[in-house]
Amino acid sequence: MLQILDATLREGEQTPGVYFDEHIKLAIAAELNKLGIDIIEAGHPLVSSEIKFAVTQIANNNFKSIVGAHARSLKQDVDLALECGVGLLGIFYCVSNSRLSGVFNKDIGAAIAQITEVIAYAKSQKPDLLVRYTPEDTVRSNFQNVLDASVAAVQAGADIISIADTTGYMIPGTKRSMYAYVKKLKDELAERDAYPKIAVHCHNDRGFALTNAIDGYRAGADIIDATILGMGERAGIVDLAQLLVTLKLDFEVANDWDLSKLNNLYHLVSQNCGIPIPMNFPITGQNAFTHCAGVHTHAAAKDPAHYQSLDPAVVGRKMDISLDHMSGIASIKWALDKLGIIAENDLLERILKKVKSIGQRGRTVGLTELEYIVEWCKKHEIEG
Ligand SMILES: [Zn+2]
């Protein structure tokens, strides 16, 4: 069964300026658990004692979600993560020749020796610990190095190999295809008798993180990483809500994710990280289910499916109609119906005229304001 790893508390905190208070970290983890997220990456305990404390609190909450921690390929990082009581440890180490020689002054053999030693150490300390090994910048690294390091990691005890598109390098339909990469790595690993779970970690530098993640799934990936609001380094990674909705509704993945929890979770995170949910963001943006133009609202008021491919109720939301310069009589009738107000045609026209004039000044009319507009129009003739 496909699993989703939410990395909001780890990758998300690599968004410049984002830091969640300890109790908010716990709240986010608890809500992710209620939503049914399979794995929660709770943080990198080495970064600070406060993060280590929060990871420990989250790991000891008896969540159904597996709780994981991030670690460099060093025993001291492994020890810290184990002290937190996590069920999954994510170890990363680069395998690109240029970085190994230019940054670490090592060859691939020495790198693999370090990676395998740390994985074997982690497994010896806690045999039921799930270990994920990520060859950093996987898709731009020498493929043979990735393969050799992955096989060695699996032989040392790694359960998961994560394919990291660290720079958002993959572009669907080109030679840089995540679909082809996942297939190739799985096949080559199988030829060497290695059958780890495959994870994909897709950055969004070119706007293809979600598409690449779906491509990874289609090619047989077992775990997909995402964050709330797609937060993360630079342009971030895959947006959790968009990923879950597509997998559950369109690919019919039979997981127990409760999509109705997404809306509140996004608001909790947005309020506590200072990043507004973009108005036009799919699924969770304020305008995602709001119809504006008169032609649209006329049809949507009869049947929302005319202009919606997703029922907002599935994600705990409702259809809305924007009252502004684009409105028509159908929009006004729809809104008045919500208020329980019945108006004759002449009054409707005057209300519409007033709403349009307000819309031309660059704002929309809410239901409370509309009530007063109705009263106003009953008393005054509106100049055209
Ligand atoms: Zn990342």
Give your account of this protein's structure:
The chain has 14 helices and ten strands. The strands form two sheets. The chain has an eight-stranded parallel β-barrel with strand order 1-2-3-4-5-6-7-8, surrounded by seven helices. By secondary structure, the chain is an alpha/beta fold. The chain has two domains: 3-273, Alpha-Beta Barrel (TIM Barrel), CATH 3.20.20; 290-379, no CATH class. Zinc ion is lined by residues 11, 201, 203, 232-233, 237.
- Write the H/E string, N to C: EHEHEHEHHEHEHEHEHHEHEHHH
Q: Architecture of the largest domain, according to CATH?
A: Alpha-Beta Barrel
Strand order of the largest sheet: 1-2-3-4-5-6-7-8
Helix/strand class: alpha/beta
Total individual domains: 2
What is the CATH class designation of the largest domain?
Alpha Beta
CATH topology of the largest domain: TIM Barrel
Oligomer: single chain
